[in-house]
Specification:
By secondary structure, the protein is of the alpha+beta class. It has 2 domains: 2-26 and 135-249, no CATH class; 38-132, Immunoglobulins (Immunoglobulin-like). The chain has helices at residues 2-24, 137-158, 168-171, 173-194, 205-208, 211-229, 233-249, and strands at 31-37, 40-46, 49-51, 57-62, 68-75, 82-85, 87-89, 92-96, 105-114, 117-121, 127-132. Strand 7 and strand 8 form a beta hairpin.
Length: 252
């Protein structure tokens, strides 16, 4: 019993760590930072992805007065930056980027000017943001949670390699359920909303599915075949768990 608890806790800890790696290595991870003017701080966040049906609201937070901030943006391939002065509301400066169609991109940055001391954040090149249609919080929750649970269970099965009385066959079908649900249902629904195609158009197969989400399912189907047809099922399940963790945690 004690050994089982250790294995379940280890599986959760390992999955959590790789989930964190997945977040910080994601192409969607925002660019954040803080700029100091003497003792005053200016905090900013540049999103790389926006899912919504309205315009993206860019915000900078600071308690400084007399700070002038300009939002600068341009379309991909353009050389000239367009500028919009940010409005102030208490400790927040804000302005909206032009609304774009799903899949379109803009490069944006901000220029801070205080007593003729001007700097550009986060860098001169700016940050590229991709616009998608609105996806509900519930769908995004299922999108992240279902994959997490699938990886958690496959990791737990992989750790059966260290258990003398392994129960790999009994557990192996549970990750399959989660990976099918994730790759064949949740991902297509998410993509449909992102492309603004819900009740509007029928998407092509390549637009509904993506290779990475299907790889989780393919790898585990192969694993199940090996588990039920080989006496070395413990080593196969461990290898598959490692492959899935790397696929989950590292965005290339």
């Amino acid at each position: 019993m004690k050994n089982q608890i250790i294995l379940w806790m280890s599986a959760f800890a390992i999955t959590f760590i790789f989930g964190y790696l997945n977040r910080i290595t994601s192409d969607e991870y925002p660019v954040t930072g803080t700029v100091k003017y003497n003792t005053q701080k200016v905090s900013y966040l540049f999103d790389k992805v926006y899912r919504g049906d309205d315009s993206y609201k860019f915000q900078i937070f600071t308690s400084m007065k007399d700070l002038k901030i300009k939002l600068q943006y341009k379309n991909i391939g353009e050389n000239v930056w367009k500028e919009i002065p940010l409005k102030q509301n208490d400790n927040m400066y804000f302005e909206f980027l032009p609304k774009k169609k799903p899949g379109e991109e803009i490069i944006y940055r901000a220029e801070l000017d205080y007593e003729n001391d001007s700097i550009i954040v986060p860098n001169n090149e700016g940050v590229q943001i991709t616009f998608w249609g609105r996806v509900s919080k519930q769908i995004m929750l299922f999108y992240n949670l279902v994959l997490f649970l699938g990886i958690f269970l496959s990791t737990r099965i992989g750790l059966e390699y260290f258990n003398k009385n392994e129960k790999i066959k009994k557990l192996s079908l549970f990750p399959l359920i989660f990976f099918i649900f994730y790759g064949m249902l949740i991902v297509p629904i998410k993509h449909t909303y992102e492309l603004g195609a819900f009740e509007n158009q029928i998407l092509q197969i390549g637009q509904l599915f993506d290779l990475k989400s299907l790889m989780f399912l393919i790898v585990w189907i192969v694993t199940i075949i090996l588990i039920f047809n080989s006496k070395k099922r413990s080593i196969y399940s461990l290898i598959s768990a490692i492959i899935l963790l790397l696929l989950y945690g590292i965005n290339i």
